[in-house]
Amino acid sequence: MNVQRRLLPNIGALAAFEAVARLGSFTAAARELDLTQGAVSRQIALLEEQFGKRLFDRDSRNVRLSTAGEIYAEAVRAALGQLRDAALGLMSNRHSGILNLAILPTFGTRWLMPLIPDFVENNPDITINFVTRIGRFDFARERLDAAIHYGLPDWPDADSTLLVRETVAPVVSPEFLAGRAIATPADIGRLPLLHMATRPGAWTEWFEHQGLSAPTGPGMQFEQFGTAAQACMAGLGVALLPLILISGELQRGQLVPAPGRPMQSRSAYYLVVPHDKRGHPPVASFRDWLLTLVALRHAT
Fold it and tell me: Where does the HTH lysR-type domain start and stop, copy by copy (predicted)?
């Protein structure tokens, strides 16, 4: 029991430590916590005595985290954040939970968001907080419960469940197509190509899929598919876009297919859940709902 108590410091001391670590000042931390500077100093001293470690390096003008303090500050910051999130969840809806979900910008807004009203209607006690993330990140550090991820099912220490496979095809605006002689995939290689920064080899793979060598010239680069689609509609060039993300533009005739066979991407869209969140009820509810919806869509 004594060992357990030693490993569980007073929450006030942890709050004081986190504030000093973040602000770099005992005075600023005391002001933020509405305490005296002496009280903050005593809290830090208690922690250092409890662990037998120096958490800060002090001189006459500065306060800096020690090596041990830097490691501990990161863990304390995450733990206090989790406690704040739990308190917010209890206060906002005592019978529910909160799902902190990372989404991809274009896929999230164009594919996922139109489906969310159904989840909200069927799960009124769960609140979803959305954040945008591209690429991998640390779930614990970001305090996120799950993510919609594009890539391969190889996220470390997490379960990756397939949602949707992706087919890409070259598209142009009708005006761009009408003003140029584009009859074969080879013709596309002589036109301005719009590139995605997150998929630098996409055009090379597509040309190889057509049995052609990829052109080597430069081209405009974009971070998000939505921006690339807008540039394509403005007549700036040919874009290689996922058909699942531009169905509206194709139906409205704002974009039209260019010559060439569509290609299924090697990567796909996955729901990624870290192992320590498997049993989190909001995550389980969201996963079950999303997989049921995906199965229904595939059936039709």
Answer: 9-66
Q: What is the CATH number of domain 167-264?
A: 3.40.190.10
Contacts of residue 240, Cβ cutoff 8 Å, sequence gap at least 6:
168, 169, 170, 171, 193, 194, 196, 202, 203, 206
Q: What confidence score (pLDDT) does residue 94 get?
A: 45
Half-sphere exposure of 100 (CA within 13 A, CB side): 16
**Cβ(55)–Cβ(66) under 8 Å?**
yes
pLDDT attached to residue 85: 74
Locate CATH 3.40.190.10 in the chain.
Answer: 97-164+268-299, 167-264
Whether this model's pTM surpasses 0.70? no
CATH-assigned architecture of domain 97-164+268-299 = 3-Layer(aba) Sandwich (3.40)
pLDDT at 95: 42
